[in-house]
From TrEMBL:
The chain crosses the membrane at residues 12-34, 40-58, 79-95, 164-182. Pathway: Phospholipid metabolism; phosphatidylglycerol biosynthesis; phosphatidylglycerol from CDP-diacylglycerol: step 1/2; Lipid metabolism. Belongs to the CDP-alcohol phosphatidyltransferase class-I family. Keywords: Lipid biosynthesis, Lipid metabolism, Membrane, Phospholipid biosynthesis, Phospholipid metabolism, Transferase, Transmembrane, Transmembrane helix. GO terms for molecular function: CDP-diacylglycerol-glycerol-3-phosphate 3-phosphatidyltransferase activity. It is found in: Membrane. The gene is pgsA. It comes from the Bacteria. It catalyses: a CDP-1,2-diacyl-sn-glycerol + sn-glycerol 3-phosphate = a 1,2-diacyl-sn-glycero-3-phospho-(1'-sn-glycero-3'-phosphate) + CMP + H(+). This is CDP-diacylglycerol--glycerol-3-phosphate 3-phosphatidyltransferase. PANTHER family: CDP-DIACYLGLYCEROL--GLYCEROL-3-PHOSPHATE 3-PHOSPHATIDYLTRANSFERASE 1, CHLOROPLASTIC, CDP-DIACYLGLYCEROL--GLYCEROL-3-PHOSPHATE 3-PHOSPHATIDYLTRANSFERASE-RELATED. Its EC number is 2.7.8.5. The keyword Transmembrane helix applies.
Length: 192
């Protein structure tokens, strides 16, 4: 296993730590920032999420720069992204920080694309992430980070950046999923 794949595995291993910080009854208190209270566990969870999500860029950059792109990496990298995003989104629903229907749309798309990737792999094709998928991932990361931080610092100027960014993430999630299926529709013709 090369270094980019190890970084991807590290991203997967950060997920249980993120969940523990967010969901364990640690009672770390809250930071009072103006009129809002940001739970310390949410701040730590947000920072951990951002670090974990940033490794997506690091492993991809390293793999391309040193020509270490592997089929395992093409498979593990999007899987790690989906696991991280799904864990964070379910946590946000738990705290009533994100509407459940939006989370269901995002996670459903992730499962559908994963299923399509498995069909492609069965045919010997391993598909790397495309640009729309990368934009989708970063839109999700921005939205989740804003939601975990309770819309800080935008809360003070009255801009619902967290919800705006979640809507952008949902739109890119749907569009990139549609694009992925449209470009790989031959899989369904072959499986008849």
């Amino acid at each position: 296993m090369n270094i980019p794949n190890k970084i991807t595995v590290a991203r997967i291993l950060l997920i249980p730590l993120f969940l523990f910080i967010m969901l364990a009854p640690l009672n770390l208190g809250g930071l009072v920032i103006g009129t809002m209270v940001l739970p310390v566990s949410h701040l730590i969870g947000a920072l951990l999420f951002i670090v974990a999500a940033s490794t997506d860029w690091v492993d991809g950059y390293y793999a391309r720069k040193y020509n270490l792109v592997t089929n395992l990496g093409k498979f593990l990298d999007p899987l790690a992204d989906k696991l991280l995003v799904s864990a964070a989104l379910v946590t946000l629903v738990q705290f009533d920080l994100a509407p459940a229907w939006m989370v269901v749309v995002i996670i459903s798309r992730e499962f559908a694309v994963t299923g399509l990737r498995l069909l492609l792999a069965e045919g010997g094709e391993v598909s790397a992430a495309k640009m729309l998928g990368k934009i989708k991932m970063w839109a999700q990361v921005v939205a989740i980070s804003a939601l975990l931080l309770h819309n800080f610092p935008f809360e003070f100027i009255g801009i619902p950046f967290d919800m705006i960014s979640l809507w952008v993430a949902v739109i890119f999630t749907v569009v990139s999923g549609w694009d992925y299926f449209a470009k790989n529709k031959q899989v369904f013709a072959q499986s008849k």
